[in-house]
Amino acid sequence: MITLSKNGLPSKRCAALILNHVASLSICPSNIQITRFTPISTRSLVKRNFHSSRPLSKEDYYKTLGIKKDATAKEIKKAYFQLAKKYHPDVNKTKEAQEKFQEISEAYEVLSDENKRQEYDTFGSGAGAGGPGRGGGQWQYKGNVDVNEIFRRAFGFGGDGTFNWDSFADSQFGHSHAQEMVMDLSFEEAVRGTQKNIFVNVVEDCPRCRGTQVEPGFKKVSCPYCNGTGMITQRLQGGFFYQASCNRCGGSGHYNKNPCQECEGHGQSVQRRQVSFNVPAGTNDKDRVRFQVGKNQIYMMFNVAPSLKFRRDKDDIHCDVEISIAQAVLGGTVKVPGIMEDTYVHVPPGTSSHTKMRLTGKGVKRLHSAGYGDQYIHIKVAVPSYLSAEQRALMLAWAATDKPKSGTVKGFDESSAKTSAQSKNQEGSKSGTNTTTDRESPRGGHVHDSKGEAKQEDTESSKERKSKQSASS
Length: 473
Known about the structure:
alpha+beta, Helix Hairpins, HSP40/DNAj peptide-binding domain, four-stranded mixed sheet, 13 helices, rod-shaped, chaperone
């Protein structure tokens, strides 16, 4: 059995008191001697909400919450919220998560209170929740860690399974870390860049109380129930003593008799602000960017509408340009649309349809490097669906000089074209035979270099001679 030497204090109760660090050792008589150790069931201690705490080094609380030593109260609360959302028993049912939630709750219990944090930073080698320690080389947290109470005191909700994390993040911290805004952009706005105005919810100090949590003209008073320590000592049945957070001031050590009416004593409120930000040139569809609004970070995702003129391939753009048959055959220039400005491009003679041309540096601005992409032009030869009579005649005339590679030309008969060509050639040769050249006759007349006309002239001369002979006789 365990023997005690003073005042007849029950041995098991005092042993439990010593083993679980739930009360200061100063309440026990200094001449108590334990002659034999008797194991005590820890189950009964859990029922009494006693929690043994492992010693933590001076830096452990900051590392547990993942913050720096100079973190502000807002940063401490936000870090605790993010970790609580991950390890809260309502979200994560594993044993490791419950232990982790116990650790972060204990760290927040100390660092969120100015007095406890100051003691922890100053007397970290041995200070405890009830005051500075006198040795041992370690911080010893002697208070009872009621995680539900800490959570309720921090955020105004309990761990009853009805807590809405996303709604709380939206209302208390503006936009939660998992939420993002969506903005619609035209193709031209995305590739050229633009400036947009949007409304966002951001968490800022209350404009009425300026973060003091009290009505203007009033101040917080020291809590009369805990004398400003934030902790109270309570006695259970059987003589057990334990320390817990003051239920009057919520462990803050201060009592707010006149809370701010606008923020309800929180010191912060969600403000709706109109902000303008620049959309970078070269933004792609579904791109996400992060921009800062005060101390808040907003994630924006862009929905880029397709273009009727251009097709985008990373930093390059493609477009179709139509040219006429005359431009394709004879060459010329054509107007090409661009993302910044239009330009004229030379079309070489004999350009066929589906010819691709490249304009260097006329594409989209590169987001993550210097320079621009290229613009590719796809030539389309426009064929008219209707021809006038003059155009049809010209096309048939051109078809007569151009032999198709295969098949025939509609409206043009190849055999009739050959017959007409032969008849034209015969007429040309006949007119060449009847053509004569006049020359002067020795008799002073003109004779033609034609055999038929020469014979006719000889016949007439013989008739004249015969008539002269008959007259003389």
